[in-house]
Amino acid sequence: MFDNLSQRLQATLKRLRGEGRLTEENTREALREVRMALLEADVALPVVKDFIEHVRAKAAGQDVLASLTPGQALVKVVNDELVALMGAANERLNLAVRPPAVILVAGLQGSGKTTTVAKLARFLQEREKKSVMVASADVYRPAAIDQLQKLAATIGAEFFPSRTDQQPENIARHAVDEARKRVMDVLILDTAGRLHVDEAMMREIRAVHAAIEPVETLFVVDSMTGQDAVNTAKAFDAALPLTGVILTKTDGDARGGAALSIRQVTGKPIKFLGVGEKTSALEAFHPERVAARILGMGDVLGLVEEAARAADKEKAQEFARKLAKGKGFDLEDFRDQMAQMEKMGGVANLMGKLPGMGEAPDAAKAQLGDRQVKQLVAIINSMTPQERRFPDTIRGSRKRRIAAGSGTQVQDVNRLLKQFDQMQKMMKRMGKGGLQKLLRDVKGRLPGLPG
Amino acid sequence: MTQSHPPQQTEKRPAGLFGRLREKLAATQRSFTRGLSDLLLGGRALDDSLFEELETLLLSADVGVETTQYLLKGITEQVSRKQLRDARAVYQALRQSILSIVAPCSRRLEIAAARPFVIMVVGVNGVGKTTTIAKLARRLKNDGHAVMVGAADTFRAAAIEQLKTWAGRLDIPVIAQHTGADAAAVVHDALNAAKARASDILIVDTAGRQHTQAGLMDELKKIRRVIAKADPAAPHEVLLVLDAGTGQNALSQLAHFGEAVGVTGLALTKLDGTAKGGILIALARKTGLPIRYIGVGEGMDDLREFIAEEYVDALLPAP
Lengths: 451, 319
Prior knowledge:
By secondary structure, chain A is α/β, with parallel strands linked by helices. Chain A contains 20 helices and eight strands. In chain A, strands 3-2-4-1-5-6-7-8 form an eight-stranded mixed β-sheet, with helices on both faces. By secondary structure, chain B is α/β, with parallel strands linked by helices. The termini of chain B are far apart. An eight-stranded mixed β-sheet of chain B has the order 3-2-4-1-5-6-7-8, sandwiched between helices. The chains are: A alpha/beta, B alpha/beta.
């Protein structure tokens, strides 16, 4: 998400970087482009107007720091405004109530509520060590309850069974009773998708809300929604006291306009992003990092956090020891590295967070796909332990066997061995005190990192 | 197994269709239509502020920057040539330009002689593919075709059950395997079954997928290849389902799905819920692809054939 918006804004602002001064002329031109970029990203029109007005006022005013060039100054203003638009910091769920903490999930049809319920349950189980029960009050869509039950089974959450001939309000009440009886920390209630203009359905969800008084009422919204996103959010917010928003399907190329608008119009924070199909694909939303990402500064913090969470500490330490010795980095380690990368959401996810990657051509990004990684792993898996430790022993007939075993071609095996060879050389250099230097080089390329 | 659910009482009122579409698009009318008629039919002078408000209305309706500029350019040119003298004339001109954009897209789906006639249904997650398939199957069955459905969404939990529930109500056979099965294999089975039972039409449901996920799009290409193996002319229709509430991203969805599997027709769902739906105009202008169906409600009869005049009349009633 945000890539397209980011590309547009970067191109506009880059043109300004060449300018000596920030004149009314070039600001106006740049702001017109920014306006177009925001509109094409589906940011709500009233929000765009406000935004442009604020930026114009600030850019013209006293806020420009002496140490910045005019182009940088405008980037800073735009960045500050983006942060202001989305809220300053991540807002966590409020679960500090007498258990069970009840979370009600609402939204339009097809926004991704049921999947989100499962992701949220998993998130709370794994990160917050909560016991979670899920229940479905969707008595309309065929097999909706079934879907939640299956998802609950895959993530190991408790499931409260319900039937389509029951009243949603009663399902909700019984689910809370059951969760209390079973001493669950959290109960998440899924509801049917509904149109905000459907009065009967909105009455129904108000009744559900009144019956169970949830501590969190989350609005689930598709990040690809157009200008109507704010109207929908407003209507739901008027009907229910929303406490937050979850933005789904952000792994596509949606430009994230809804994210920028909803917070502004409803004042309700975006708490999570859905970032993929798997139940693990839910991220806490950090507005300040997203603003940086939009302007091409990269979500380095997010990257570090993910690395810390996914990395297997023991393996990392062993790897560090090997590195320090400057030798012994073998194909086994190579494979582990790949697996770690997979755990962090795959190559594509990582790339999106690197500074400057917003500007990389899509084709280049696609080439570094997760598929290649899978292929590399398959090739290494087809080797004997001996071969993994001593790749030099892999010659003609071994290569053919490995290729056959992994369903690849001999060329693929050759490519892997070559890549590995290069990597080994780099590792050796790093081992010989080169690590510091390498880090310095990398840091030089990251804007906004303390040096 | 026949279930005697009468699926959401059917009211066949072809004569009233027109009025019903307008009624169904009430939400769209509320903001866009009323906004336009307030602006242009209230006897205001033709000045900059009027055009700015017109731009605002179009942009807020998801018509998109490019198409909005295109529409406005046409109108301001006519104004400067003194062809349009008042706001009412601008309203008429706008009506006319929108009609000329969408008219080439109202081409109905003709069921050719091929047996089975294969319709492959694709789209991103949550646009309403499965529900649209149910309504489409019902429509085609009522037209006298023997319809079969292949459940190739083997990814989403309970997607197969959802399709089976619908099909049970409609008494339409479904060919399915278990969740997690190879989608292409399901399609292969479905094709064989459709031939064996001499079905007229096979509708293939596919899993929703983000159009930017190369791996998932490859899977879709594979499904297409499997279909083409059985009959080189198949799939005879690749129907892309789009959510009318989607913003400018719909264009990207169409581009990606088009490139991967050659989309031949569109279905726009949830047109009743959105106050906008202007994306339909943007899609029509950018691609000219046939818009086969629009979804205007939850009832089984609420999947309509797209008829340009009817749509424009509902959107901008003749003054």
